[in-house]
Amino acid sequence: xxxxxxxxxxxxxxxxxxxxxxxxxxxxxxxxxxxxxxxxxxxxxxxxxxxxxxxxxxxxxxxxxxxxxxxxxxxxxxxxxxxxxxxxxxxxxxxxxxxxxxxxxxxxxxxxxxxxxxxxxxxxxxxxxxxxxxxxxxxxxxxxxxxxxxxxxxxxxxxxxxxxxxxxxxxxxxxxxxxxxxxxxxxxxxxxxxxxxxxxxxxx
Length: 204
What we know:
Layout: E1 2-8, H1 13-17, H2 33-45, E2 53-56, H3 60-69, E3 77-79, H4 96-103, H5 119-122, H6 127-144, E4 149-154, H7 156-167, E5 183-188, E6 194-201
Parallel strand pairs: 1-4, 2-3, 2-4
Antiparallel strand pairs: 1-5, 5-6
């Protein structure tokens, strides 16, 4: 049984500005003061010394969160592109207010969340594209590192995709965006069967 502890990065200014960060890796997509505090708080209340290693998205906001979480723990860290946030294509780096003015029918009413069909106008990744790369990562890691405890530091939609895969949810909107610096736990058996233990848990 391989255990996955999946952490969403700390808050960025982009998170609170209504900004489609996607795979943007420049400001405002770096950890802000609150995000740094969140990562330090998680470090203090979720001691990852029990784990064997960390896998992290190549984006700076995830790597900085992983480094803060790993202070004094010194776990080996590997970067994996399959843990990237969803690419919103032409929408990466644009503000939700501007996008809603042009493409309001692709936004869930009352929120900045989008329907799966958004990719038709944004030239971005499909929801299933992210789920598939996450599934490939999960299958490879559970075979290569069977019985290990793995910490993953990644992004909101990517965390959602791990959970979506684990429970084989047919509704693409079943899981809402997890909290910044929350933890989601999934166990994967030798035969690939997955179990979701908890989603978006905040440790305080």
